[in-house]
Amino acid sequence: MTDKDATQGIVAEVIAAHSGQDGPLLPMLHDIQSALGHVPEIAVPMLADALRTTTAEIYGVLTFYHDFKRAPQGRHVLRLCRAESCQAMGAAANNDAIMQALNLGWHDTTPDGALTLEPVYCLGLCACSPSAMLDERPMGRVRPETIAAAVAGLR
Ligand code: FES
Predict the structure, then answer these.
(1) Domain span holding position 20
(2) Which of 85, 89, 94, 95 gets mutated to test ligand 1 (max ligand atoms within 8 A of its CB)?
(3) Position 2 pLDDT exceeds 90
(4) Does the annotation flag 122 for ligand binding?
(5) Pocket test for ligand 1, best of 128, 131, 141 (most atoms within 8 A of CB)
(6) Ligand 1 pocket, 131 CB below 6 A?
(7) Residue 92 pLDDT more than 80?
(8) Could you tell me if 87 and 42 lie in one domain?
(9) pLDDT in tens, 28-78
């Protein structure tokens, strides 16, 4: 069995598990991402067929919700806040410096698969802006050097 066959099998199982439900697309997408870590391209036409809709409709939902990932994520995820409070405390320049130091753009993953960089729009840490989250670890008053130290040695 190829990886593609295995992926199709998982997607087909998720689709079957939700068949007959009202409004099954979001639960299907969540379950696919939960099983595979992202929603692979191959799932889109399968979902469109199963739900008797267009691939454009599926892409529309998939791209509207930023929590759905269309590519595998790194083993660790760094989220940098881009919302208002953090912006007021210099997040834009700070984030640019962090991205330059990591050589990553938004949604990029390092070539070794260790780290993915994602934007986030408020972590509820506004009093400690600018903020970030490394996996489940919230970080306040971040600077490029604190991020560099936090991600050093991640594998
Ligand atoms: S705006 Fe960044 S944590 Fe709230």
Answers:
(1) 3-64
(2) 85
(3) no
(4) yes
(5) 131
(6) yes
(7) yes
(8) no
(9) 999 999 999 899 999 999 999 999 999 999 999 999 998 899 888 899 999
Please tell me whether residues 28 and 83 are part of one structural domain. no
Is position 128 annotated in a ligand binding site? no
Residue type (1 letter), 85? S
Instruction: Determine the Cα–Cα distance for residues 26 and 7; give it in Å rounded to an integer.
Output: 18
User: Exposed, middle or buried by CB within 10 Å (0-12, 13-18, 19+), for 82?
Assistant: middle
- 60 and 90 share one domain: no
Q: 77 is written with which tokens? A: 């995820």
96 occurs within a structural domain: yes
Is 122 near ligand 1, meaning CB less than 6 Å away? yes
Minimum-distance ligand 1 atom for the alpha carbon of 125: 3
CB neighbourhood size of 102 (10 A): 17
Structural domain total, the chain: 2
Residue owning tokens 């295995």: 6
Do 109 and 130 lie in one domain? The reply is yes
Beta carbon of 123 within 6 Å of any ligand 1 atom: yes
